[in-house]
Structures are given as C-alpha cells and as structure tokens.
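Researcher: Next entry in the queue.
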Amino acid sequence: MEFIAPILKKIGIEAAAPAPYRAVIAGNGYGYFENVRGIKRYSSQEVCLFLKRGELRICGSDLTIERYGQGDIVLGGKITFFEATGV
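Model: Structure for this entry, 87 residues:
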C-alpha cells in the first residue's frame, strides 16, 4: 500500500474504498469468492450470493458448489460472468 497511497493522493484521492468481496477465477473451471454471508439462489446456470455488503451474481454453465463455509465459497463449472450489486 505504500506504493499506491502517494499516487492516489497525487491525483486527489485520499483513500480507496476496499471491495466488498474478493474473486479469483481459475482457468480450469473454478471460482473462489470471499466475504460471502449466504446463498440467495442456486442453479446450474446462476448462483446469487449475499455479501457482507450487497449481493454477487455469478452466471455460467454446469455450476456446482464445491466448498462453502466460513465466509467463502468455491464454485465449479464454466463461469462466464459475475457482477456485484448494492455495493
């Protein structure tokens, strides 16, 4: 953060707001998402998650829940799109 802070200050931004979630999409058909509060909706084409702030919608095909617990979730399948709302 030492590198980024002076640059943000120079362009007039004192602090950047942290993202309400973290997403890592692996090329071999997995997605890892942090800061998950719960599952709102689940199907093989769409997964909607409650976040600590807002919601996250993940779309794709053959989606499966590989692991869920302690604030994170791992999804299997082909993820084609995801978006956060209400953040």
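Model: Residues 19-85 form a domain with the Immunoglobulin-like fold (CATH 2.60.40.2000).
Researcher: Noted, moving on.
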